[in-house]
UniProtKB/TrEMBL annotation:
GO terms for cellular component: membrane. This is ADCL4 protein. Belongs to the 'GDXG' lipolytic enzyme family. Transmembrane segments: none annotated. It comes from the Eukaryota.
């Protein structure tokens, strides 16, 4: 019996030691491959948040390797494990809009008039995120703006590839617009809103609904550091912020490939720019080009890249990157001209900064009113920390 216990203790000790070494290795890898620029406020706090995310991913990989669950499933579980109780100021209810799970937040206080409506699409690279991960944010929006907020639990990649997430968000929005009276919402004051991948979905839904005469016209689109194109991962913001937490350049390309194909098979081609033929890139260069980025955003360093061509085989897998419902920055002017008033938030230390800047220019060039807010010390994902106790950041608030 003593021998068995000794062996068991040694096994557990070895497992724990190996686990610690793996985690420490991941942290060391994080420190050597990431960069927190001097302009970021509270850099140590950002480093802590990033290390926590890295450790979660490492534990998920260990569990996947020993056959307990997939890494993606574990990370999703950890992200959504916190549940909030009742809110004294809100009615909160889980519903289904056209087979799409939604969570609706309605202010309890009586209103003399119809309320604003907000369709909210969460971020998470189309792979992560849920109704739970953005619960605090949606409650805050509903309370502070006295709006009816509908958070959409769209299907996630890689299990559900493009256009699943887009279709879910579109179907849920159409359903809401058709039943506004049921929720006491003013048909003239409905907005779509999203952060990161959710900003992508909000922009795509807004474009699709722009020409619809059978539904109320959207009042506005609110795009929080949105991902809007997958043609060029070498724009100035990608070069400057490629190693800045919480979204590395490689991860941005990885996520959009997961959404498109359910895998990251052609990651290197996407990163170097050899996934789209030169003639097609030149055709879109009027919209996706470093030339359209103001010079002040290039001072931290930018090197123009030579355009690379791609093989027919690779383009066959990547050609849907040219669809505006996946990459809204590529929509035709006739669509962009019909878009509602827009709010765009960008962060200086974010690989997606230039997507927002390019879309801002496109909208303004086509006569769409844009309110633009730029966080000089902001980084990708900062809005998720606005109410995270001691790990919150002033810019997020």
């Amino acid at each position: 019996m003593a021998v068995v216990l000794t062996v068991l203790v040694l096994f557990l000790a070895g497992f724990v030691a190996g686990f610690i070494l793996l985690v420490m290795g991941a942290i060391n890898f994080d420190f050597s491959n990431s960069e927190i620029p001097p302009g970021v406020n509270q850099p140590a706090k950002l480093r802590i948040v990033h290390v926590v995310l890295i450790c979660t991913a490492v534990v998920g990989k260990i569990l996947e390797n020993i056959g307990i669950c997939s890494q993606v499933s574990f990370v999703r579980y950890m992200q959504g494990r916190k549940t909030l109780g009742a809110d004294p100021k809100l009615f909160i209810k889980d519903l289904w809009f056209e087979k799409v799970p939604v969570r609706i937040y309605q202010p309890k206080a009586p209103s003399a008039s119809q309320r604003r409506g907000v369709m909210f699409f969460h971020g998470g690279g189309w792979v992560f995120g849920s109704l739970e991960t953005h619960e605090k944010l949606c409650r805050f929006i509903a309370r502070e703006s006295e709006s009816v907020v509908v958070s959409v639990g769209y299907r996630l990649a890689p299990e559900h590839k493009y256009p699943a997430a887009y279709e879910d968000c579109l179907n849920a929005t159409e359903h809401f617009l058709q039943h506004l009276e049921r929720y006491g919402v003013d048909p003239a004051r409905v907005t779509v809103c999203g952060d990161s991948a959710g900003g992508n979905l909000a922009a795509a839904v807004s474009q699709t609904l722009a020409g619809r005469s059978d539904l109320p016209r959207l009042r506005a689109q609110i795009l929080i550091y949105p991902s809007l194109q997958a043609l060029d991962f070498n724009l100035p913001s990608y070069q400057q912020n490629g190693g800045v937490p919480l979204l590395f350049r490689e991860r941005a390309a990885f996520y959009v490939l997961q959404y498109l194909n359910g895998n990251a098979t052609n990651l290197e081609e996407v990163l170097e720019g050899s996934h789209i033929p030169v003639d097609i890139k030149l055709n879109y260069r009027k919209w996706v080009s470093p030339d359209n980025i103001p010079e002040k955003f290039k001072v931290r360093g930018y090197k123009p890249r030579v355009l690379l061509d791609c093989t027919t085989e690779v383009f066959e897998k990547m050609k849907r990157f040219c669809e505006p419902t996946l990459c809204p920055l590529l929509a035709e002017d006739t669509i962009v001209q019909q878009l509602p008033e827009s709010f765009i938030l960008t962060c200086e230390y974010d690989v997606l900064r230039d997507d927002g800047l390019l879309y801002k220019k496109r909208l303004e060039d086509n006569g769409v009113r844009v309110t633009w807010y730029h966080l000089e010390d902001g980084f990708h994902g900062i809005i998720n920390s606005f109410n995270s106790e001691w790990l919150s950041f002033a810019s997020g608030k």
